[in-house]
Amino acid sequence: MPDLIPSTMLPPPRPKPKLQHPPAPPDPASLQLRYKLSTPTFSILSAIPGSPDRRAILQTASQATEFRSFPIHAAEKAFFRTINETKPIPYLIREAVSQPWHKVFLLVQIDLMNDGWPSKLSAAARKELHGERGRIYNILEKCLRCLVDILGQRMDGRGVTTGLDVLRSIKAGVWEGNGQDLLQVEGIGPARAEKLAKAGVRNIRQLSGMDFFHIERLLSRNPPFGQQVLRAVACFPLLNLKLDVVSRPPGGREGDSTWIARILISYDNEEMPQWKKARPWTTLVIEGENGRLVWFWRGSTKKLSGGKEIVVSLNAKKGEQLKVVFACEEVVGTLIKETFRI
């Protein structure tokens, strides 16, 4: 008969998750202080309409008064006109390009194209714009994060999801859903991404499953290029989401609008995910049929080790279909979408 394992050697039992209720929305004054934005800028952000699309999110954030210190210089006018009139950007400006917010709005879009800047700048003007670019993006990120919080305060689930989509795209340097996920990998530009796509490799999960010599053959590169690429994508976040059956809380009656859901979020990586030398943060949004915010969670991938179980209280009517969106906050290509019906 084998010896019994001492109780001190047994792994501690996983604590039963507590029922979580939606957090109280932040106070508007605290939001302005948190992001250190001017009062006029906070008023502009607060005036965004309900359920905004990508254009409305980006345009509203670009109108922050902090951007008035980045006017369109005379040497930049032809550059930004060319972007607006000849480049296939998704959102055009329907007036004369002259305002500081036009500069931000167009600069972001040309950057997300990953096709290079038009050759309409002198060397000195290009250098100056590159110098402004970092400060512009720092302000824009604060505005986008503040917008997400403002929309969350309104319980605008559709707006929160879209705001996070724009923030994630800008931080990653490529639009979510445009099939350009591979451009996030160091050493892979548009031409190499196109070669991989022709071979059926369109995302980082597919790339990470390739042999190093196959990568080198497809891209006509010598060793150790393939191994370098695989090392770069080895810890790319591979998120996982599972939803349990929704039920009424104990004592719930027919007609009650409160339900209990069990959510398990985790990652499929063998090791803890890491991207650009950092542990990514993730967001989970549950949206109702009318676009309202039903639930929101934000946490580091560190919290997902071994799987994180969340038991939540949802306010929804019987038969309502809810949308769940789970993704890394700053990495494109990690998005998971699920729907379930109460």
TrEMBL record:
It holds the Pfam family Sec63. GO terms for molecular function: 3'-5' DNA helicase activity; hydrolase activity. Residues 9-28 have a biased composition (Pro residues). Residues 1-28 are annotated as: Disordered. It comes from Emericellopsis atlantica. Residues 25-342 form the SEC63 domain. It comes from the Eukaryota. This is Sec63 domain-containing protein.
